[in-house]
Specification:
Pfam families: GyrI-like. This protein is α+β, with helices and mostly antiparallel strands. 17% of the residues lie in helices and 47% in strands. The protein has two helices and ten strands; from the N terminus they run E-E-E-H-E-E-E-E-H-E-E-E. Strand 4 and strand 5 form a beta hairpin.
């Protein structure tokens, strides 16, 4: 498994991710793969889909956890069936990391980013973050590429 702890910096335009959602803590985040399994059964029911990527978007980080949406980019959350939720991803500057390996090792990559890169980076995370999965994603494969996009600004 490889993960790149030297991110590339990207500027992203705003977009909306819509899909299935849940509220998680760092303890319960191990249940997020179940959300993805459920999404497989209803992904074609999400209206206004844009592109072929799938996304895991996390927002509303507080002491009691965070909101997570497993879904797709949509042109509008208008008319979204009630079982789906959306997260607005704002325009901004992002540090983009690459995880290349088993999906079950993704939490390890996040831990390295938070514990090794963040403390010395000179950046602060400032909003919703997201994972972008390619069109060839298959969680059962040993080699799996995921981009982790963290919204950043220079810390003071």
């Amino acid at each position: 498994m490889t993960e790149t702890l030297t991110p590339r910096l990207e500027t992203a335009e705003p977009f909306v991710v819509a899909g299935l959602s849940g509220r998680y803590t760092h303890t319960t985040a191990a249940a997020i793969p179940e959300l993805w399994t459920s999404l497989d059964d209803c992904i074609d029911d999400i209206p206004n889909r844009v592109g072929d990527f799938t996304y895991g978007a996390a927002a509303n980080f507080h002491d009691d956890g965070f909101d997570y949406v497993a879904g797709v980019e949509v042109s509008s959350a208008s008319g979204l069936p009630s079982r789906f939720r959306s997260i607005d991803i704002p325009a901004g500057n992002y540090a983009v990391f690459t995880h290349d390996g088993p999906i079950r090792q993704l939490p390890h990559t996040y831990a390295r980013i938070r514990n090794e890169w963040m403390p010395t980076s000179g950046f602060a995370v400032v909003g919703p973050e997201f994972e972008r999965y390619g069109t060839d994603s298959d969680g059962a494969k040993d080699s799996y590429t995921v981009e982790i996009w963290l919204p950043v600004e220079k810390s003071s």
